[in-house]
Specification:
The complex is a heterodimer of chains A (860) and B (240). Chain A has a 6-stranded mixed beta barrel with strand order 2-3-8-5-7-6. Chain A has a 6-stranded mixed beta barrel with strand order 12-14-19-16-18-17. In chain A, a hairpin with a 2-residue loop joins strand 17 and strand 18. Chain A is of the alpha+beta class. Chain B is an alpha/beta fold. Chain B has one domain: Rossmann fold (3-Layer(aba) Sandwich). Chain B contains 8 helices and 10 strands. In chain B, strands 6-7-8-3-9-10 form a 6-stranded mixed β-sheet, sandwiched between helices. The chains are: A alpha+beta (860), B alpha/beta (240). Chains A and B meet through helix 16, helix 23, helix 24 and helix 26 of A and helix 1, helix 2, helix 3 and helix 5 of B. The complex binds adenosine-5'-diphosphate and magnesium ion. Adenosine-5'-diphosphate binds next to strand 1, strand 2 and helix 1 of chain B.
């Protein structure tokens, strides 16, 4: 055997695979499930996220919006035109307050005009009309569509005329859903849609009118059905921020914090799940390949005795590994594709989102590459071990046999063996590279790669410590223990026992599965809070102090109102100076000076619901000095921090308040509108109006509106029920998908672990047979294995579940989700691990137990 | 008959399906062995010696025919019953030792005792295990694991293990096959010595004519049939 040709190597590799197909079944299964979970979860979540993101975009009706505070300059106009030339669609939206009146009665009413180009607006979502129709066809230069509120107040109906400015428009429909209602101004007065040309014709756009101008942008969808790339949106945002320095540019994710957080957390969690699936698969492969190579030691020794070099033998097993990896990865991709197809079917009842599945070549290639690469990486150390096999093994096999847990062996060999060290570095680098490629969330990738290294080290140390403790215990008690228990324990602790590798592998698997579970639970919990069904979806503006009690009673009496209404006192004010610097000279970031003139102040003794303090401290109830809490982003724009002093003016009074706390609100409550909260004593004597918020059955808002109008005609009702329903349904769908995919990854993980455990049965056959020859009954052998597997399960469970809590905590804190330790889940996971190991250990050994001794002994 | 039969083999057939073909390994074997006899089973490689010995110990099921150990027909007993019978009546020595790697030498020797002795007084078993290990010259290696012992030492542990329950029958399949001459004869001496001391019936598979020369009786197999079954003169002398 001067030199082994690749063809011969391939032949030998294939023959071996055929000969022990049972064993390789577990290798292929591990890879297949790992890759299957990877492609399934990634593929499905990417198509699904695409669908969800489209819905999320409908809340802004665009990918990006730029809110202008003045007319664009010539240079800006040119820049916008360049952008439009790159197939990015742009449409202007103008909002302003105006008086409108019925053409018959001429009663004036303050309305909130919104001028759009109906051919383009909205880019996402739809403006729903009653009678049903499309905005495109219904809204023309001489027509308007209006909020029902307007009809109620002016006693009009569809078909009547409405006078705006000096033009008369025909009302053609009532607006039942305005997709981007949440992102506009919450101005007093019912909504009236008008075309841009109609607005021009009305003559209202006189210079100096306080019209708010926004541009909406839509990034073109890639042709292959893939979702719009996030980076395209981010790039456009950056470009717009440069082009329009005075404008506030936001992307659709910023419209609603609940939505953004939901999406971000889902992204993080899904990344975690993909990585976990991958590593679990790799663990399965490593376990099975190692067992395989151990059994091949004889063959390897014989081949060496016949003059084969290590390189040639390694070639055989590399080919074998690649074949197995390819087989497993291909199967896995088929599995993942099937899973992707099956998900929408299972989820169909829960989701009303179109879940068209696009098979993405990239996802498939990633799956294939990741599968092959991890298989190869994890078989590298045992492959390198081949070089250490000496031909003498044929004669004295037992003396040379070494089946240390691979990582222990790895670390031990590190000192002796540079190439092993290289292999370790390669594995870690490879895993980190795979993790980075796969992870849509860099944070998860980072935590994960780092975590993996640390966890491996600690897991190993704990296993070693535990085994040492076990050994100590056994040496003390050795012959006093019941022999089945002693034998079971001895199986675990024998120096260089492969059970130790299993211990580490199972511990790691349990850790990952439990981490996914814990993170998922915490994320879902928070999502439930932010999609709670009773959050206010109708806002009331301009309630006088005299009216508040009455409005509250009225709302409480309405059957369509299903939560206590919230009320927010507001004092109109302006900022005179910041830290002694007059407002006119203050350095502000993205905050037009004009806006310092219209600041709404409110007062609470404690942080209102949904608001949390991020910096500084809230004051004690009954505080008499003037103190103020400010929203973090506003504070940034104003350049203030706890301790800064802001001078406000309200009516004729001026007062200086000390910034006491910076706050963050969840955007879910009426109170979220309060950017400046002062202590009640300071605002006590100032004229106050109230804002209100209530949750109304989305289908019955009109009813409540009419009732309010009858008793309190000056109170404006702003209906965001539909928009909030969209947010809520997206968040709920995220929740479902997360739960579903997490359940799937946990299941896949358990299958892989189970197969890793089951794969060890090949090692047990001989032992079982020897015991049988010596007169052991099946029950007795079963008892020995039960002890072994119970301890294995408990130990790897304790280590794995413990670390899972640590990792979950780290990830969650990075996602700013609160972590809670749960005894129930922890104990549950522990018990589940033990049950799983005992059960699979048993199930796998069962066939072994029934085997006739001689058949096995003959396989010497 | 003055002799008490411990092993009786009747019409033993064993064939194995190999793919579509059926291979006949044992083609009808009959013999019986009286208490205390030392039988050598000889024959070329592949003649069916190991298969026969396995059937004698109930490690496999014959295709037809039966094996009686101490009057009990064992061949078709359920696994667990068989394990019990085997544990109490047969000590087995393998060519490749077959020690349990997770247990020390002492524990390996003790194992059959723990598995089978009804009146398991642990102290008694422990004493006997230690004594046996002393006898095979491993008194100072009791706490070693198989992996830490040489082949010859491992086989001596296996011998001690085969004798701990004072089984009426010891079956040994080329026990010296994996050992060098010195170690081989050492193991053999021990085997014979134990056989003599404990009054055990010994069935030994061997290639070695010298070794077989010590036996009371030689059974030669060829192609799954007994082709010769003769008592040695020395054996005749020894039989009372
Ligand atoms: N499981 C089996 N499958 C196929 N052939 C077998 C099997 N077991 C034994 N044989 C064949 O039966 C014959 C006898 O085997 P064995 O009893 O081990 O012989 P010996 O121990 O005398 O060398 C051999 O030719 C062997 O190849
Ligand atoms: Mg043989």
């Amino acid at each position: 055997m001067a030199s082994l040709s690749y063809r011969t190597a391939l032949k030998i590799a294939r023959q071996e695979m055929r000969a022990s197909s049972g064993k390789f079944f577990f290798v292929v299964l591990s890879i297949a499930i790992g890759v299957g979970a990877l492609t399934g979860v990634r593929g499905f979540s990417s198509s699904f996220r695409g669908a969800l993101l489209d819905r999320a975009r409908s809340i802004m009706a665009a990918d990006l919006s730029a809110r202008m505070f003045q007319q664009p300059t010539e240079k800006e106009e040119k820049g916008l035109k360049e952008i439009a030339d790159e197939h990015i669609e742009i449409t202007p939206v103008t909002e302003l307050l105006s008086m409108a009146s019925s053409a018959k009665t001429l009663d004036p009413l303050l309305v909130s005009l919104k001028a759009v180009d109906p051919k383009k607006y909205p880019f996402y979502g739809s403006v729903d009309l009653q009678p049903a129709g499309e905005l495109k066809t219904m809204l023309r230069d001489d027509t308007v569509v209006v909020a029902e509120d307007l009809l109620v107040r002016l006693n009009l109906k569809v078909g009547d005329s409405l006078k705006i400015g000096d033009h008369i428009f025909r009302i053609v429909a009532v607006v039942t859903n305005e997709p981007d209602r949440l992102s506009g101004n919450f101005a007093a007065g019912p909504r009236v849609f008008i075309t841009q040309d109609g607005l021009d014709a009305s003559g209202l756009l006189a210079p100096g009118s306080h019209a708010g101008q926004r541009y909406l942008f839509r990034v073109p969808k890639p042709g292959n059905g893939a979702p719009i790339s996030e980076s395209d949106v981010a790039a456009l945002k950056e470009r717009l921020e440069k082009l329009l320095p005075e404008a506030q540019v936001i992307d659709y994710r910023e419209t609603n914090p609940a939505l953004t957080q939901g999406l971000d957390r889902a992204t993080g969690l899904l990344s975690l799940m993909s990585l976990v699936a991958l590593v679990l698969g790799a663990v399965g492969v490593a376990m099975a390949m190692r067992a395989h190579l151990e059994q091949r030691l004889d063959t390897i020794a014989i081949m060496k005795a016949m003059g084969a070099g290590s390189g040639e033998i390694i070639r055989i097993y590399v080919i074998q590994t690649l074949l197995l990896g390819l087989l497993g990865a291909t199967l896995g991709i088929a599995l993942g594709t099937a899973v992707q197809m099956a998900f929408p079917y299972f989820l169909g009842k829960l989701l009303d989102v179109p879940t068209a599945v696009h098979l993405q070549v990239r996802t498939i290639l990633t799956g294939l590459g990741a599968g092959l690469l991890t298989t190869l990486l994890f078989t590298l150390p045992p492959l390198l071990d081949i070089r250490g096999v000496r031909p003498v093994l044929i004669f004295r096999r037992a003396m040379e046999e070494s089946n240390d847990p691979f990582v222990t062996a790895l670390f031990r060999k590190l000192s002796k063996n540079a190439s092993q060290a290289g292999a370790v570095v390669l594995i870690l680098a490879g895993l980190a590279a795979i993790a980075t490629t796969l992870s849509d969330s860099a944070m998860v990738g980072e935590v994960f790669s780092l975590g993996l290294v640390v966890v491996l080290a600690v897991l190993l140390a704990s296993c070693a410590a535990l085994l040492a403790a076990l050994r100590w215990l056994l040496q003390r008690t050795r012959l006093r223990l019941h022999s089945a228990v002693r034998h079971g324990l001895a199986n675990l602790y024998r120096p260089g026992n492969p059970s130790a590798a299993l211990l580490a592998a199972v511990g790691m698997g349990v850790m990952q599965i439990t981490a996914v579970f814990l993170v998922q639970q915490a994320v879902v919990r928070e999502l439930h809070i932010s999609s709670a069904p009773n959050l206010p979806n109708v806002f009331l503006i301009d309630i006088t102090s005299d009216e508040v009690a009455g409005v509250r009673t009225l709302l409480k009496g309405q059957p369509a109102v299903n939560a206590d209404p919230e009320f927010l006192p507001v004092v109109s004010s302006r900022i005179i100076a910041i830290d002694g610097v007059p407002a006119g000279e203050a350095k502000l970031k993205n905050f037009p000076k004009r806006m310092l003139q219209t600041i709404s102040l409110t007062s609470f003794d404690a942080p209102p619901e949904g608001t949390t303090v991020t910096q500084g401290e809230w004051w004690k109830a009954g505080e008499t000095r003037a103190v103020v809490a400010i929203g973090t982003r506003t504070a940034e724009r104003l350049g203030v921090h706890p301790g800064s002093k802001i001078t406000f003016a309200a009516q004729d009074e001026q007062f200086t308040a000390t910034v006491s706390a910076l706050t963050k609100s969840d955007g879910q409550h009426t109170f979220s509108r309060a950017e400046f909260v002062l202590n009640p004593a300071t605002l006590k004597d100032l004229p106050t109006v109230w804002y209100g918020g209530a949750h109304v059955d989305p289908n019955r808002v009109g009813e409540v509106q009419r009732a309010l109008f009858k008793s309190y005609p000056t109170v404006t009702v702003i209906n965001v029920a539909q928009a909030l329903e969209t947010v809520r349904s997206v968040v709920i769908q995220i929740t479902y998908v997360i739960q579903f995919l997490a359940a799937f990854s946990v299941f896949a993980g358990v299958v892989i672990l189970a197969s890793a455990i089951a794969g060890t049965r090949y090692r047990r056959i001989r032992e079982v047979v020897v015991l049988k020859t010596l007169g052991a009954t099946r029950a007795r052998i079963g008892a020995v294995f039960s002890v072994e597997f119970a301890v294995l399960g408990l130990v790897s469970g304790i280590v794995g579940v413990g670390f899972a809590n640590v990792i979950a905590r780290m990830l969650l804190s990075r996602m700013s989700v609160t972590y809670h330790f749960h005894w129930g889940w922890t104990l549950g996971a522990l018990l589940a691990t033990s049950a799983m190991t005992i059960f699979t250990g048993w199930a796998a050994s069962f066939r072994v137990l029934g085997q006739k001794p001689l058949e096995v002994l003959r396989e010497e | 008959m003055p002799e008490e039969t411990v092993i009786a083999v009747e019409g033993l057939h064993k064939s194995i399906r190999n793919g579509s073909r059926t291979v006949s390994i044992l083609k009808g074997i009959d013999f019986s062995v009286p208490r205390g006899q030392f039988v050598a089973i000889m024959g070329s490689s592949g003649s069916g010696k190991s298969t026969l010995l396995g059937l004698l110990a109930g490690l496999d099921t014959p295709t037809s025919g039966n094996v009686h150990l101490n009057g009990t027909a064992i061949s078709y007993l359920p696994e667990d019953r068989l394990a019990k019978v085997r544990g109490r009546t047969v000590g087995f020595v393998f060519q490749s030792y077959q020690l349990v790697p997770t247990l020390t030498a002492l524990e390996n020797v003790l194992l059959p005792y723990e598995l089978n002795a009804d009146d398991a007084s642990f102290a008694v078993g422990l004493e006997r295990a230690k004594q046996l290990l002393e006898n095979v010259g491993l008194g100072d290696r009791m706490d070693h694991y198989p992996i830490q012992l040489s082949g010859g030492e491992q086989q001596r542990v296996a011998l001690a293990r085969a004798f701990i329950l004072q089984p009426p029958i010891v079956l040994a399949d080329e026990p010296t096959g994996n050992l060098d001459t010195a170690n081989g004869s050492h193991v053999l001496e021990l085997l014979l010595d134990l056989n003599r001391k404990e009054g055990t019936t010994l069935v030994l598979v061997t290639h070695d004519p010298v070794l077989a020369g010590y036996a009371d009786r030689r059974i030669v197999l060829r192609d799954g049939l007994v082709v010769s079954d003769e008592r040695s003169e020395r054996a005749a002398e020894l039989v009372r």
